[in-house]
Write the structure tokens for this entry.
Amino acid sequence: MEAIPPIAVLKTRFARLTHLQDAAGVLHWDLSTVMPAGGAEARAAQLATLKAMAHELLTAPEVGDLLDAAEASPDADPWEAANLRAMRRQWRHATALPSDLVAAHAHACAACEMTWRRARAENDVAAVRAPLARVLTLTREIGQARAGVLGCDPYDALLDEFEPDARAAAIAPLFDRLAETLPGILDDALAAQGPAPTPPAGPFPADRQEALARRLMETLGFDFHHGRLDQSLHPFCGGVPDDVRITTRYDEADATGAIMAVLHETGHALYERGLPAAWRDQPVGRALGMSIHESQSLLIEMQACRSRAFLGWAAPLMAELLAGDPRAPGWDADTLHRLYTRVAPGLIRVDADEVTYPVHVILRFRLERAMIAGDLAVDDLPGAWREGMKDLLGLEVPTDRDGCLQDIHWYDGAFGYFPTYTLGAMTAAQLFQAAVAARPSIPEDLARGHFGPLLDWLRETVHEKGCLVTAPDLLTAATGRPLDPDVFLGHLRARYVERMGERAR
Amino acid sequence: MEAIPPIAVLKTRFARLTHLQDAAGVLHWDLSTVMPAGGAEARAAQLATLKAMAHELLTAPEVGDLLDAAEASPDADPWEAANLRAMRRQWRHATALPSDLVAAHAHACAACEMTWRRARAENDVAAVRAPLARVLTLTREIGQARAGVLGCDPYDALLDEFEPDARAAAIAPLFDRLAETLPGILDDALAAQGPAPTPPAGPFPADRQEALARRLMETLGFDFHHGRLDQSLHPFCGGVPDDVRITTRYDEADATGAIMAVLHETGHALYERGLPAAWRDQPVGRALGMSIHESQSLLIEMQACRSRAFLGWAAPLMAELLAGDPRAPGWDADTLHRLYTRVAPGLIRVDADEVTYPVHVILRFRLERAMIAGDLAVDDLPGAWREGMKDLLGLEVPTDRDGCLQDIHWYDGAFGYFPTYTLGAMTAAQLFQAAVAARPSIPEDLARGHFGPLLDWLRETVHEKGCLVTAPDLLTAATGRPLDPDVFLGHLRARYVERMGERAR
């Protein structure tokens, strides 16, 4: 090894790491889509071994020395420098934790998640108290161990896993601004939206929905030579950048959900596919973080595809492929737009509309931050949830099933993930505004089903950057300023209060 | 590690190895069935890393010491002892070769296979001469290196990879017996079989063929909770024992091929699925070798499913599911049986019938043995092929495409694989005879579509044994004697000359 520069040794090692993670990604796709149930145990063993071997590749004693040596003779090339930073970041996260803590946490999460599945079904919050308390205790220990290495608060250290360098102290004021403004927008939106439209009558056979989904994916720029569309219980985007696989599920009574879910996942897929090809198997070539990832799905879904402009183009296609006639009743663009921009405050995050979704996230952000800080005990969570829901959305929470039991995240140990949904929504609004400013034809392009100009801009500005710069730097370079909640709020007002793009009714 | 016994350390390591190989197995299935073409490069990188890491797990310096230590205090349990022997065997194969030879061979095979694809299409044997000569040179080096470790001839050392402990000197007399006897059986079979039956008229939509295939698989005992049926260019059996996946391809003009291919692969699948569950991730829990594997597919296909007894039961089901009427014309059991037992000597191995298939294998066995021994140069291969085909089957070979260019094996470096096809066919005949002797109801059971008694016998006698004993010992324990070509020849005579089971015409 004497003649090989440390960075070359590291790149070989990180390429292997990427291949192991990519292999695991394909195996995850398989288990969610096509694996027979009886294969679960064997698959778990395969994935556990891939994970363990990836961890060992990353934490082997020589890796720290190689990183030190590589950092001692920095490369002037910004991609090489960013790649080395991304390597160091992964190494820091992997070596921050003693392996017995990782194992105890994994074990506690598995047990808690299993209990939670039953507890949610039976609305039995008492049953999850002890297992969630155990998960929380170990998660706090993880946060503290990581915080020492990263030099930040324990909650920030958890957040950092999903969103590099994000800090709660910076997120809180943005979320406060949303929390104080959204109730007013919601009231105005409810007043402005008029009576509920009647959705087109089904049934819509799954194969027709799928044919439409494929057509729309192609319209957006999805390349089936490098990807797939399949079915799974929960829609997701998986696979690897050159073989990116999205899934959806079809409700034959109502096609609108599956179609929009596909467009959302296509946004994720276009991002993965657009990552810098020259750095495919290196850390700098992979996705930047969850907020940028979510911004790409929400930009496609919320900014582009729920616009009146795009729906004007899509409505006759949907009518033709779903109902067999481009002018089928109920499939006019106005009805479709009203359906896709309907606001209705409710208790369930995953069913929430674009205006109220951030409120759900803010509630969870505040509660999980307090739990990690030690300011909120698991025993007090159901009450704090009810109080928060009342304060933020004015809703009573009649059952814990529709309250603190609704999401899997905490019960599976994922603290620090929730904020990325709304960081992504704000980022999407700001990026879309910048895209239109840079290429003013974009709204007209979308009205003709032409996604090329928008996709080109996203590729140049976001996708092809990989992890070259941080998310805040990427956003500032793309939009001229840091993350600004007022862009997102302005978008919500225009769409839901001013009902822009709609014909007078 | 001081308190852990060496065998426990080895079992942990070999379990990991199994998981890596199983992960690669699922990824291979994926690339053959559902992977978009654009994912090929990324997949190759994933598989190469899994292979390299598996090789490193197996060849790490401590493994030899651990094996020595474990062997120094042998375990009285026969499974433990057999597991240790299987570990030592894998280690010996993996460490026998210098890594630069492995790399040079892999490179030469990839280049030669690529040239071969074009050369076969263009019938250009001159084009493959140099690349095949290079593959042969390196394969001979590999054979010599392995032979030194295993204490056998170079050709045997190659054979050993596919069929543990098999030796050409033991195979040759068995094959000679076939070669001298088959021409007479063939002549008699051609005289006995009468005019060619007219196959049922299609088209047969792929979805109907698939529905029939699934029904037949279930009849045979295939458990879809632990497996799948899909489509691929070439039928195969892949996946892992608890998630065993077979594939086929459908020709809408003729359903008979796809159905029989599915039954063949189901035989492989039942073997994998029946391997000893308690040893899933250890070497002793895996398939014994290619001749036993092929015996399980050929027993199901040739011995059981091409029998008049089984086809009597299957014919109305095939007629119903393919033609919509259990009494559809052309679907009577006699016609079907005559179709499925038609003999017709030809130039192409993969199209050969049960009587002439061994002749194709024997030709290849003799030629490849001579090539490895240095007695046949690549330049002389086309002529030797033509001569052999004339001698063995009395056929002229008008083009190399239908001669020495037809099979991928040698061009991809697989010398020593061919004999296992015919070892498998002979083993299948002998095992089936023993099964019927042990459970005389089996022919009647098959005539009712009941595979339970046959499958139970196979599980107890073959599948559940894993690698507990060698293939010869397994066969002797199951049938009371070593491999005897006359059992296979007797089967051929009964079926093709005496036309047993057929009604008088």
Observations:
- The mean pLDDT of chain A is 96.
- The first helix of chain A runs from residue 6 to 33.
- The first strand of chain A starts at residue 227 and ends at 231.
